[in-house]
């Protein structure tokens, strides 16, 4: 195996110069750099992966920041990101932010130090300025920031279809449970579209927001218990995730309400769990696997200087199961 | 900011020598190495994270290989691993093997090149020899290999308790659905203990193995449909995961069987989904979060040369919900 000394000799430069090229440090003329690269190729010099990263200025790492990987939506999204990153020879650095802005910021800083090729941001507690200071290629999930490409489902159409379905099935008193609307997320459009559609149809509705924490089960229980206490005659629920829909289903069972006889339920996402539930949960399907693939492609296109779309909105699909 | 040149000057050595120390290449006397380290400290020389990895021979990366992150058990395990790795300043490299031995081997090779601090192996298609050739600290999940520490739940006691519960509730015709027993996993002990307990109690039972693919939903459907076709009078099912238990529940609903009136169901894992289901799934709980924490600690202890336990078996707990 050839060493850095062999490379230096072949290129007719000092080892220091080779090291500088490797470390991308100090002034090196383009001619010298090319000589060193050529010598490395000719000698099939194999620095280890870390040294190679320095050489290529690529780490073959893609960072993914999600609120919590144990949430089925993010687990299925990460699955797709990992699969497609692997096709490009990239590995996945996985970070849970737990919606903690400090942890999110610290993770972004770590990723910069590790020179990740790009960051897919699926957690959104940070201010827009924190993103602007990044030089890495970046893609956001479900958040629109000028100058940064995003992937999202057609949230607007999703919210509208959920409302239309419940109304068409005869529901006249609707509840909608959504994430916290203070988070600047495109998912909020589900709520606005649902409310607008109900309003235009003259159907009564109420909207309940969860806490900032995406995944607090006791919070879901509290909200749903309160909903049925104050509005026992609710006959249609649109939940912003299949998990919340499953919690509504659980409460209906507890309170002796027939689904879909007394009350109809529509979720969002179509995570696998929606079809495992009994009864199977009717839901608005986002194409999670395709969104993951596109997120990876958007990183690669930015790296390679290829053109790319800024707005990547995926059509939703109504999947009718047994809760409507 | 100080440069590699400043470090060389302060240490009284050439830049090549500093580079050698950084790259851990060529002969360097211990005295020179210490001089270079001291100069770096005094000058607060900050090589980037990748260069620092070379310096410390630590990457601050922990690799986790799972069959599929979208499986709730592995998603929750990864969540815990990420959380505890973060406490140690480590990031998580996540790999899905999809139970493909080639992909598993390739991932392990990649991790070596990236100089990960350690590998947590949650996927087990490889032969024991493939593990032995690794020099990195390694921890396995649910597999016992001489000389490698593992974490697992008390599978034996889990299988026994599931059988005892079903029998105590009056079940007299049991079915057990398990993973593929050709995989060399400690989870297989659930099956052996379940079968032994049923046998000792003189209760009839049948065991059905799933395919190698951990997560083929149509396979679950096929197995369960066949089970009820051949044995419509089964009155107790022990499934090796809560997901499979949810599928059994779905089939019972489809076939008009009352749960727990006509048939009782026990799962394994206690992933969050088990409590979201309606009725809530009775299950054998493995302490997933603690197992993740211990896996990370076992990597750190190996790195730091601290003593550690080889066999880390965690007590299970019976969580009774509505399916028994």
Automatic annotation (TrEMBL), chains A, B:
Record's keyword terms, sorted:
DNA-binding, Repressor, Transcription, Transcription regulation
Q: Does the keyword Endoplasmic reticulum apply?
A: no
Domain HTH lacI-type stretches: 2-56
UniProt cross-references to SMART domains, sorted A to Z: HTH_LACI
Q: Which CDD domains match?
A: HTH_LacI (cd01392), PBP1_Qymf-like (cd06291)
Q: Which GO terms describe its molecular function?
A: DNA binding
Supply the SUPFAM superfamilies for this chain.
lambda repressor-like DNA-binding domains, Periplasmic binding protein-like I
What protein does this entry describe? LacI family DNA-binding transcriptional regulator
């Amino acid at each position: 195996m050839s060493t850095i000394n062999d490379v230096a000799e072949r290129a007719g430069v000092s080892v220091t110069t080779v090291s500088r090229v490797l470390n991308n440090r100090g002034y090196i003329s383009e001619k010298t750099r090319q000589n060193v690269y050529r010598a490395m190729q000719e000698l099939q010099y194999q620095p280890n992966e870390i040294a190679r990263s320095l050489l290529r200025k690529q780490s073959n790492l893609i960072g993914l920041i999600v609120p919590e990987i144990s949430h089925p939506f993010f687990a299925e999204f990460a699955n797709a990101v990992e699969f497609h990153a692997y096709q490009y020879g990239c590995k996945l650095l996985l970070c849970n932010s737990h919606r903690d802005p400090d942890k999110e910021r610290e993770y972004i800083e770590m990723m910069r130090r590790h020179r990740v090729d790009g960051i897919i941001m699926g957690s959104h507690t940070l201010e827009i300025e924190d993103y602007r200071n990044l030089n890495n290629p970046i893609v956001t999930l479900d958040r629109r920031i000028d100058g940064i490409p995003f992937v999202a489902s057609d949230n607007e159409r999703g919210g509208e279809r959920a409302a239309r379905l419940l109304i068409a099935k005869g529901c006249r008193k609707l509840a909608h449970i959504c994430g916290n609307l203070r988070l600047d997320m495109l998912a909020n459009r589900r709520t606005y579209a649902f409310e607008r559609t109900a309003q235009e149809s003259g159907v009564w509705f109420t909207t309940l927001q969860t806490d900032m924490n995406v995944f607090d089960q006791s919070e879901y229980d509290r909200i749903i218990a309160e909903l049925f206490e104050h509005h026992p005659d609710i006959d249609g629920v649109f939940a912003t995730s299949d998990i919340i829909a499953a919690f509504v289903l659980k409460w209906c069972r507890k309170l002796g309400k027939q689904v879909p006889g007394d009350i109809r339920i529509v979720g969002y996402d179509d995570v696998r769990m929606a079809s495992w539930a009994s009864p199977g949960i009717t839901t608005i399907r986002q194409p999670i696997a395709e969104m993951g693939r596109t997120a990876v492609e958007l990183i690669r296109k930015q790296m390679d200087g290829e053109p790319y779309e800024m707005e990547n909105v995926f059509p939703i699909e109504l999947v009718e199961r047994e809760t409507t």
